[in-house]
Amino acid sequence: MPLGSRISALCLIGGYYDVERVSDFLVNAKRADPYGRMLMVRSYFSEVEVENDAFHRHLERCIHNNAKQDEGWNLRSLLDETDAEQERLWQLLSDCGQRQRFLQKVIHAFGDDWSGYRVNLNFTDSKTPVFLLHGRGDRVIPPGESRRLSSQMSEQGIPNYLCITRFLSHGDSAIRLSQLPELYRLLRGFAWFISCTRR
């Protein structure tokens, strides 16, 4: 029996609709998470530039430092402008023009190889309900991506429930008393999802 016929509902947390748009956000948007930007550079730099151990060593140090202390993190303080490779990394991560050129090289290098990352809404039976949960403060995959997914699903007649909540960012949560009104929205979304799994 195919797996698809045994799925009664899907829950997609922090999903995206357009891989190029997410990549552009990570590389170019001022509000994008620097951790996500650095991971993108780590994943694709060696595919479009000459391999350089010193460059990658400095990049790993910056990623590790950011993971340890997100608050008050300062890239400039980590990279010595008198060292050529460190300054090269600083320019790549901080200069708008260099970031855009890097992204264009990545898109050009991969071309159709990114097709596996593009959303195909034929992934499920059109009657399978999908719960889309996204953090309003997500700085890696912006919540507009789940809005686009929801809109496309609705156009194709795929039942879906979109919940964008302040409880989540990207892979973490921070609950404050001021956010308690959000709880209703979140519980309502999960109630919809659970009711779909019982059908």
How are the secondary structure elements laid out?
Elements: E1 10-13, H1 19-28, H2 34-48, H3 53-68, H4 75-78, H5 84-94, H6 96-110, E2 130-135, H7 144-155, E3 160-165, H8 180-197
Parallel strand pairs: 1-2, 2-3
Helix pairs in contact: 1-6, 2-3, 2-6, 3-5, 5-6
Based on helices, strands and strand pairing, what is the structural class? mainly alpha
**Order of the strands making up the biggest sheet:** 1-2-3
Q: What is the residue-averaged pLDDT?
A: 83
Low-confidence stretches: none
* H/E topology pattern: EHHHHHHEHEH
Q: Could you give the count of β-strands?
A: 3
The helix count comes to: 8
Fraction of residues in helix: 40-55%
Question: How large is the share of residues in beta strands?
Answer: 5-15%
Radius of gyration: 20 Å
**Main beta sheet, described?**
3 strands, parallel
Broad shape? elongated
Counting structural domains, the number is 2
- Cα end-to-end separation: 19 Å
Explain what this protein looks like in three dimensions.
This protein has 199 residues and is mainly alpha-helical. The protein contains eight helices and three strands. Helix 7 links the parallel strand 2 (130-135) and strand 3. The protein has two domains: 3-17 and 120-197, Rossmann fold, CATH 3.40.50; 20-115, no CATH class.
Structure keywords:
199 residues; Rossmann fold; 8% strand; mainly alpha; 3-stranded parallel β-sheet
